[in-house]
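chain below, 283 aa
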Amino acid sequence: MPIFLRYPSFRHLASTTATSPKTAMPAELQSTSQGQTLILTLRNPERRNAIDPVMYAAGVEALGVAESSPDIRSVVITGSDGMFCSGGNLQRLLANRQQPPEVQAQSIEGLHNWIETIRTYPKPVIAAVEGAAAGAGFSLALACDFIVAARNAVFVMAYSNVALSPDGGASWSLAQALPRQLATEILMCGDRIGAERLHAMGLVNRVAEAGSALDTALALAEQLNARAPNALASIKELLNEAPQAQLTHHLGQERDHFVKNLHHANGGAGISAFLEKRVPRYE
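prediction:
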């Protein structure tokens, strides 16, 4: 498995004891590949894979590199050590209360840049969730095109539990996907929600056995990798535009994408392969 990049994030000191002082492992975003899939792994063992501004920037950079690579056709975002992401670092948030409001605003802008990059990224992005996806970790998963969750995974919009409102596009994502009452319950009550219930709501695509979320996500990625990248990019763009579009405008967008993809080399390859009952090979 070739390694692409390893992005260091902020270093911090762990709490120490009188008998065993130690320095915490750095938070980082690890980037590896399997076949045509880029795997981005959140790693912050001291903070249950909490994410921070340098990690946001690393995520944007990694996707930018992969977007220009024809060898990468999909992306999986996961967490290390059986945990997806605990959200933001509350110690850092508490410290930011002593700073001008602009400090936290800039931090959130970094997160939102990563979220928007995922949403508009032309290749499929899959979240593989083991353990907990809390706060901004839940927001991050919702930004992806697919969510694969272990059967024992837990999701929680923890913001209201600490007197905060959501970020990372959580309110937008839930409002787009769910009836208002369900979105309100998830955001206001801050309850822990299991993968099975989110699957029933339509937010989780696949429920995997514990410990196999990444493998299931990679299998889904392989299925997507076999399809024409230009067609998948068109589908994602159309889905992103649909909620704000008037029907007449959107019908025009569908027409233009269809014609463009028909005249793409992959269009000819796909139709010919179907008619000849063989597996197509796409550029």
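Residues 101-120 form the longest helix (20 residues). The beta strands are 3-8, 28-34, 37-43, 74-79, 125-129, 132-134, 146-150, 154-156, 193-194, 206-208.
thats it, cya
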